[in-house]
Amino acid sequence: MTDRDSKGVRAREDTRPPGVLLEARGISKSFPGVRALNGVQLEVRAGEVHALLGENGAGKSTLMHILAGVYRPDAGTLRFHGEEVRFADARAAQKAGVAMVFQERSLATPLSVAENVFFGRQPSRRCGVIDRREMHRQTRRILEDLGVDLEPTVLVEHLAPAEQQMVEIAKALSLDARLLVLDEPTSALTETETAALFRAMERLKQRGVGMVYISHRMAEVFQICDRITVLRDGEYQGTFPRAGITEDELIRRMVGRELETRSSRGAEAHSNAECGMRNAESSSSLRTSAATAPTLEVRGLHDGVLLQDVSFAARAGEITAFAGLAGSGRTELAMSIFGARSRTAGEVRVAGRPVAIRCPLDAIRAGIGYLPEDRKEAGLFLEMSVAANFAAARLDPFGCWWLDDRAMERQVAVMAARLRLTANTGGRRVQELSGGNQQKVMLARWLLVHPPVLIVDEPTRGIDIGAKREVHQLLRELAREGTAVVFISSELPEVLGVADRILVMREGRIAGELLPTAATEEAILRLAALPHQRAGMGEA
Is 125 among the domain residues? Predict the structure, then answer.
C-alpha cells in the first residue's frame, strides 16, 4: 500500500470493474447512545445519478458526511477511483474530488454570490490580490450552466431561499468534483428551478460525474435517478435499478412495514401515493365548517413591500392551504400575521375579535401558533433539549419561578408516544435528531398550547414519506379537534391532498380560491403564473 496524500488518502490496486467511481463496504458509525450505521454498502458509477433513500434517522446523512470527510467511519472501507481512501477532513475530500450540497445551507449571507461560490479559493493575480473579474466570470458561467439568472455581485442575504439553494449548488459545482452528493437539493426550489437543476445534472452525467441524490420526493427519484439504494435503521436494504422496482416496494423497504395509504381525507387515490383526493367526508366536513364563523380573519393586509390588500378567512375544522410560486408572498403573509414581520395596514381577527399583533408573543397570546419554513433558523433552539423546545411556547404549566424538569419529562413521554418521536429522553439535544423528528418537536410545542389557529409553513419539507404522512394525519386531527389550520406548501400534490380550500397567491395578492373538487395542478399554476386576476370559489 502506498501513500498518495499527506492528509491520509491511501492507494491500492483497483480490482473492481471499470466505471465504478465510489465503493463503500461495511461502513459502521456510532455516536453516544446511537448506532447510526451498521455494515452499510454503496456503489456509485461514473456518469450515474444514484438515489439514497430511507426514513429520517435511517443513516443517510451520516453516510454522506463520511463520504464528504466530515465524519470518519468506525469500521469499513471507502474506495474512490479504485483507491482506498481515508479523508482526514472535508478539505481532503474536496481535494480528492468529492463535493456535497448539504440540506441546510452553509452560506455567508453578508458576502456576494461569487464570494460564496469561491469562498477560500478565490482566483488571484501574481501579486496575491483577488482577481474579482475572473471570479465573477467563472461564477456567471456556473450559474448560466444551472440556468440561474443571478448577478455574481449581489449579496446572498438579499436572495430568496430558493436562490440561496442554487448558490449552494453552484458552490459545489465550482469544485469540479468527480463525485457530487446532493442532500435534498430541491426542497426549496420551484418547479422551474428544479427542472434547471436536472438539466445541469444531465450535463454532469455526460461528463462522467457520479452523483448521490438524497430526496424524499419519489417523483424526482424516478425521474432523474438510475439506481436506488435503500437504508433502514442504519442498515443496508438493497440496491435496485430504477426500472426494476415500484414506489410501493421502495416505501415498504424504507419503513419496514406497509404504510397506511388511507388518510382521513382519502390519500389512496393520489398518483404519487403521498397525499390524496377528497372523499365524501371532505364535502360534509367543509359544508359544516363553512356554516361556522371564521376563527381567523385577515382584512386588507399590506406590508409596504410585497403584500397588497390580502384578505381571507380560516375556520375551525378545516385546513386552508396557500399555494403559489416562490416569491408570491405566502411566507411573508404568515410572518406578518404572526408578528414576525411588520405590516403597514390591515386587521387580524381571532374568534371575531380584532387583535393587536406587534410581535410573536402578541400572536401567541391571541391564540395563533406558527411553524416557520426554516425550522433550524427560526423554529428550534438546537442547543437546548427536546423538553425545553416542547415548553418554549408555554412555560406556565411547568412552574412559575423555575421549570419542573420532571413535569417536562412526563409531557415529553406523552408527546413522544403520540408523535412516534424516536428521541429516548427529553434531555436529548434537538440538534441530534433527524429532520423529521425535529419537525415533530415543533408540532409538539403547539400541541401543548393547542391554539385556535395554527399556521404551518412547509411543514413536511425535508422529511421522509412516513413522517410526512404522520404530519398530515396530525394536522387533520388538530382540525377535527377545532383548530383552524393554515397550510403553506410549494408541493402541489400535497396541497391537493390535504386542503379543504386552496388560496393561490401571486405577487403579494390572493389571485383566486379553489375547492378540492375543482382544483388541479394546472388550475393552481394558471392562477399562480398568469397576470393578476381573481377567481371565484371553485373556478379553474
Answer: no
Determine what percent of the chain falls in helix, strand and coil, rounding each to the nearest 5. 35, 25, 40
The dihedrals phi and psi of 318, each to the nearest 5 degrees, come to -135, 160
* Residue 242 DSSP code: G
Q: Which is nearest to 25 in space by CA: 44, 48, 46?
A: 44
pLDDT the model gives residue 264: 39
* Count of the separate structural domains present in the chain: 1
Residue 116, all three cell numbers: 460564496
Burial class (CB in 10 A: 0-12, 13-18, 19+), 247: middle
Region of residue 344 (phi > 0: left; psi between -120 and 50: alpha; otherwise: beta): alpha
Whether residue 503 is contained in a domain is answered as yes
In tens, the pLDDT along 325-356 reads: 777 899 999 999 999 998 899 999 999 999 99
Q: How many CB atoms lie within 10 A of CB 127?
A: 5
Strands 83-85 and 75-80: antiparallel
pLDDT of residue 201: 87
Nearest in space to 102 (alpha carbons), one of 90, 112, 92: 90
Question: Is residue 377 one of the residues assigned to a domain?
Answer: yes
Choice among 81-90, 465-474, 497-506 with the minimum mean pLDDT: 465-474
Asked whether the predicted pLDDT for residue 11 surpasses 50, the reply is: no
Query: Measuring CA to CA, which residue among 83, 507, 132 is closest to residue 329?
Result: 507
Give the least confident one: 27-36, 49-58, 140-149, 423-432.
Answer: 423-432
Alpha-carbon distance of 274 to 494, in angstroms, equals 7
Say if 13 falls within a structural domain.
no
Task: With beta carbons less than 8 A apart as the criterion, state whether 357 and 343 touch.
Answer: no
Whether the Cβ atoms of residue 205 and residue 48 lie closer than 8 Å to each other: yes
Task: Using the predicted structure, report yes or no on whether residue 225 has a pLDDT greater than 90.
Answer: yes
Residue 306 per-residue DSSP state: S
Residue 112 gets which letter from DSSP?
A: B
Residue ranges making up the domain that contains 353 = 267-529
- The CATH number that applies at residue 381 is 3.40.50.300
CB 371 within 8 A of CB 455: yes
Q: What is the pLDDT of residue 441?
A: 81
CA distance 168 to 188: 12
Helices 161-173, 191-206: crossing angle, 10 deg rounding: 10
Q: How far apart are the first and last CA of the chain?
A: 67
Mean pLDDT over the full length of the chain: 80
pLDDT at residue 531 in the model: 54
Largest CA distance in the chain: 77
Tell whether the model's pLDDT for residue 79 goes beyond 90.
yes
pLDDT for position 7: 39
Burial class (CB in 10 A: 0-12, 13-18, 19+), 503: buried
